[in-house]
Each structure stands twice: as C-alpha cells, then as structure tokens.
Design goal:
The chain has eight helices and seven strands, in the order βαβαβαβαβαβαααβ. It has 258 residues and is α/β, with parallel strands linked by helices. The chain has a seven-stranded parallel β-sheet, with helices on both faces. Helix 1 packs across helix 8 and helix 3 packs parallel to helix 4. It binds NADP nicotinamide-adenine-dinucleotide phosphate. NADP nicotinamide-adenine-dinucleotide phosphate binds next to helix 1 and helix 6.
Amino acid sequence: MDLKLKDKVALVLAASKGLGRASALALSAEGAKVAICSRNEDELKKTAAEIHKETGNPVIAITADVSDGEQVLSLIERTAETFGGIDILVNNGGGPPFDKFENFDDGAWQKAFELTLLGFSRTSRDVLPYMKKAGGGRIINIISGSVKSVLNNAVLSTAMRMGVVGMAKLMADELGPYQITVNNIAPGLILTDRVKEVLPKDVGHEQALKERAKTIPVGRIGKPEELGALVAFLASEQAAYISGTTIQIDGGSTRGIL
Ligand SMILES: NC(=O)c1ccc[n+]([C@@H]2O[C@H](COP(=O)([O-])OP(=O)(O)OC[C@H]3O[C@@H](n4cnc5c(N)ncnc54)[C@H](OP(=O)(O)O)[C@@H]3O)[C@@H](O)[C@H]2O)c1
C-alpha cells in the first residue's frame, strides 16, 4: 500500500533513539522529509545520518528540549523554513519518573506537566498555521498504555497522559474541519533503551526479556519498528478518517475491555 507520504514534511520530537527514532525512520522510509530533535546533539546527528543513509530521503537534526517553549518554537520555524511547511507532527518526549504518589513533590509534578502535557499542547498549537496552510495535517501523540490499564508507580505518566487524551479529543473536534487529524498511540512494552534500563538485573538479558513477556498475550516484548509502522499509517492519506482515538500497541496486554 502506498501511504502517499512522499515529500510530506514530518517533525518527530525526542527522536535520537527509541520510539521517536523508529517513527522518524518509518516516515522517512515512506518518502517523507523528516526533522528530528532531542537534547544530545551528537546522538541526534548520528541518528539523522543513519536514517538518511537507510532511506535516501532528507533528514535534518535540530537540537531541542521539548519542554522548553523557545527552543520548540525555533525548532518548528526551522523545520518549516528548511522543508517549506509541516504536514505531520509526532509528539514524543522522555517519560516522567516512576515512583509512589507520595514521593512526588510540586517540582516533580511541574516538570512532568511541562514535558508531557504543556509540551504536547504547545507544539500542536504552533504547527497549526502550517497544517492549515497545507490544507490538512496529522498530529500523533506517543503516550502510554497507562491511560488504559493501571501501571504501578506511573502516577505522573498516567495523570499527564490522561490530559493528553482529553486534549486530543477536543482538538480532533476543532481541527476536523481543517482536515487535521489528532490521535494518540498508547504503547505497552516496546524494547527501547528506556525499557532495557528497567529490566531485572539479577538474571541474564534474554531471561529478563522472557520474564517480562510472560503477561503479554503474544508472548514477547514489542519492537520499535512495529510502533513506527503504526505512526506511518496514522500519518497516511488512508488514515484521513481516523481522528480523536487512542490506539493501543501492546501485544494484547491491556486488561480493560473498552
Ligand atoms: N518503550 C516503551 O515500552 C514505552 C511504553 C509506554 C510509554 N513509553 C513512552 O514513550 C516515550 C518514548 O520512550 P522510549 O522508550 O522511546 O524512550 P528512550 O528509548 O529512552 O528514548 C527517549 C528519546 O527522547 C529524547 N528525549 C528525552 N527527553 C527529552 C527532552 N526533554 N527533549 C527532547 N528530547 C528528549 C531522548 O534523547 P535525549 O536524552 O538526548 O534528549 C531519546 O531520543 C516516553 O515518553 C515513554 O514514557 C514508552
């Protein structure tokens, strides 16, 4: 299936590795011109070069912290200047820390808000003029399965991401007339560095993966490229009628029915 992404412009946040990188690679492989950002400049440039080498399509790397309003505005302006507009925004960021509710002070809540909710709202608002000018667009938020199924110690992630779900639904209402769709992707367990770091260390890597996969119906942890493929589909012309949804990608692990 041709996803009709050739020469579309995609901005993918927090994309030097993990789910952001996989999303950028999938969009680039479909012919999109891609801008990626993250904080570590060397890693970001390396990733941009790797994606370009693999797909042959243009990729630019712009260092930015997604929780910093000025840096994000400049990132959006530079992307649009370089590629002539923005058609697709993939909102992503580092996840908030895990701990019990009573251990988070005001500072931790504020930081989680800026990274995970305010950051997503700011980028979405600032790309709108470009998408409206282009006659349509795609906003895709990478959030977490914790909005569908309770995850221990994930109070910051759950609280902020429930906010993203509500925001996306209202945005889908308001932006539908402009042919701009807004959707959330809720990953379960996908094997990125973030997940590798929290695997049990008392057994070998392969054994730790097997242990973690025991509660996943398909019997394994997900691959970043599987999430990348979903991003590419949601960004496609064929997905024009999908908006305001939250799509789980979790090998069937979510226990809720709705
Ligand atoms: N992997 C999973 O199974 C899973 C499940 C549920 C939810 N999620 C969520 O999905 C998101 C991505 O997770 P991941 O597994 O891909 O993580 P990862 O492998 O640790 O990658 C995180 C990426 O985000 C960048 N980043 C982090 N903080 C940033 C900031 N403030 N500004 C700009 N870039 C930033 C990192 O680069 P720099 O550090 O250089 O900035 C890196 O490129 C997280 O929010 C996570 O909570 C992941």
